[in-house]
Amino acid sequence: MKGNRWDWTPVLAVPVNADGLSANVLVDSLKPQELVSRLKLSLPDGEGLGKDGLMSFLQKILQYSVNTWDQGFLDKLYASNTPVGVVADLILSVLNTNLHVYQVSPALSVIEKVTARRFANVFGFTGPRAGGISCQGGSASNMTSVVVARNSLYPETRTHGNGSHTFILFTSAHGHYSVEKSALTCGLGASNVWAVPIDSQGRMIPEALRELIIKAKNEGKTPLYVNATAGTTVMGSFDPFVEISKVCKEFGLWLHVDGSWGGPVVFSSKQKGKLAGVELADSLTVNPHKMLNVPVTCSFLLTNDLAVFHKANTLPAGYLFHSVDESDDVWDLADLTLQCGRRGDSLKLALAWIYYGAAGFEKQIDHAFDVAAHLAQIVQAHPDFVLVSSDPPPCLQVCFYYAPGGHLSDDAKANTRTTAGMVGKLIRRGFMIDYAPGEKGSFFRVVVNCQTLKGTADGLLKGLEEIGKEGQ
């Protein structure tokens, strides 16, 4: 610790073997069946294995899991935890309580209400009943928003189902697949999720949305819901929320913003302009477990009027809900959610906010954006790579191809094979990145996080360069 604060500066120190390749600090990568054999998981019929057996198996879990704390983990839209996060998870496990009714979780219920309201306020939701709920991940938050939208705009569906309506959901062509999963789960049908074309920056085109809504109405369907995105999964794009909101208001559609990834830029004075108009949304998903590095899972569904959630989701369950308070201030939080049993995940954000403060979040986010911009710059300047992202990128993903001499093959399948092969070989060098499909085949997608160092970005590109030359 430094004074009364933990020193949590990441250190770029990757152990290497005699051959110059990294030691097993990131992951001991095995095929599933080989891992089954190595773990030797056996659940005893009789007596348990006690402390020694438990400790032995815990060691195996750690050995064969991905070390997301390592600098080389640049694979997904989340990364390592922090000491504060470990404390939050520990407290939740020690309390082992359920966030469904105030009676059994008084402190955690207050923490969720206060934290969600403060979080909503940061995004411009300032109504007297502004607030939100925590859900088990961004997909759960998005699905809850679909249910709330349907039950609010068409109240009869709460008791009678969809009836004669063929509801249509609209989402960006680069939107997250959870919208289709929500339609599938809610009985709306995945084919009734219509993809809205995007512009050259990966942003939803409002006029194209308008045309699709008119098309749906002309076909006798019921346009219901628009999912705009703050930080798309691959390119990190932010949709034009003000213009999309105007279209939604014109036709009476629910506007949801999926800010699972990009929402936390609201804490950065340099980046929050990308969220212009987000306060016009009817609901907003934000996942602090992504950009803010709090423990997985921590997701919020926020709104300007929490009474709408209550009206959409409440059911009479006298064996559980005993409140006689007739006010709009609901304290039995399961009366707002689709779930009954929930963990108090809002504690994870609350403790991080207490420790780091909004100013600390801003520093973390600005650092991550600086590193992402640095990576984009060195990719752009390198003769053997072709940058797909803009320079600087809109969010923390940097996407690019390996293209010797700057010449990218027109053979998309060949490009995909090259990309996938190089990604696989990177693991032995202490890096994990992902890849995503593009017009000319799959490209690298590197996800920077708030603990990534510029030296890590330099080392990654050097590793890819060396792997590329080995394959020629």
UniProtKB/TrEMBL annotation:
Gene Ontology MF, one: pyridoxal phosphate binding
Cofactor: pyridoxal 5'-phosphate
A Pfam family matched in the record: Pyridoxal_deC
Chain positions with N6-(pyridoxal phosphate)lysine modification: 290
Biological processes annotated in GO: carboxylic acid metabolic process
Family: Belongs to the group II decarboxylase family.
Record protein name field: Glutamate decarboxylase
